[in-house]
Amino acid sequence: MNKKIFNLKNDIEVLYRRNRNTPRVALCFNLSLNDPVPNPGDYTLMTRLFMQGTKNRTAEQLADELDRYAIEFSSELKLDYLKLKFVCLNEDFDKALEIFEDIIKNTTFDDFEKEKCKLAGEIQAQLDSPRAKVVDNFYKNLYTNHHYGYTNTVIYDNLPNVSREDVLRGYNTFINNSKKVIAFVGDLEFEFVQDRLNKCFGDLPKSLNRLPDIKPPVLNEAKTVEIIKPDVNQAHITQGWLVQTASQKDYPVLALMNIILGASGLSSRLFLELRDKKGLAYVVRSSYDVARLCANFSIYIATEPSNIVISLNGFQQEIDKIKNQLVSERELYNAKNNLIGKWAFSQEDNNQQAATYAHYAVTGLGFDFNETARQKIQMVTPEDIKECANKYFNDKYVVSIIKP
Q1: pTM for this structure?
Q2: I want to staple 326 with a disulfide (CB 3.0 to 4.6 A). Which of 24, 303, 308, 382 is the partner?
Q3: Measured between alpha carbons, how far is 387 from 143 in angstroms, rounded to an integer?
Q4: For position 392, what pLDDT does the model report?
């Protein structure tokens, strides 16, 4: 058996998977985000500062050492957890783990003010993109008064209030009060990996067995929010609804409905109807974005400003169609193959596999979630799609529009 699950002495759950004859290993260490959630920007700055030096290495020394050994290190803040990851050659695993341990345990957060200025500049640059701005506006209004709604604009506005003490407090919360999981994928002996991980991380504060009870976002009414941006040539529109997430029974149905409506490229309904037949846009797609507490289903289009109303009516026509007419067995069969193929493609290498295993585990779904989800996907019927469409495509939605 090439896959094992075990616990470190402090209850950190670890998945080990051996993929033989692969030259690089990947290790992903996720720590759950817990209540109370701090002000916007606290965790974002903390995540960026992991690369800015430790008690044993300056930022320059750290960057030089990682480069010399071709070690890829990344720190990323997700909606529900902190993700720390490295990829390295098999023979450099000990060195990579030693640096990784130093970063996790000994980061100084000393370049706080410099990183704060850099973050502000990067946010401004990102929001020059109309696509980024319409998505930011969508999430901010969909998840109002919830930390899922801490978008770039919200963080930017609050940055002046974030202090180094806030960042240190956030770091201590993650280290001391979180569910911690590790996923290792690569061609190294199990006993060797188990021993090294216990030595490096077995002395961290105990991993929580349960995830915190955080209230999910609530959307009680329809909202349409427009932003006027004089320098844009097109209108960008996103419309979306709150829906069930991966831990709930409608997940496989929603995932397939997303493929049918707009996530399968040239063959999706939205693409065929709004782009090919009506010529409304070059880009039109749907998305099913899943987090631990909830998910959202959205439709996006970039079109001529004169086509805003026509495009929204086009969204509604396709929604009405899937609510009132059963999808064919052939269309559903193709959607299942498309979705399972996408999942397989997204887990081709050790890096992708480690990230996927750790993601599902830290959000409470278990390391083997993908395997059970595939079985549920195959059981979805046309009637399930119709019922789900009628359940979620209701009058509680957010429409975000950017136009000249």
Answers
A1: 0.95
A2: 382
A3: 25
A4: 98
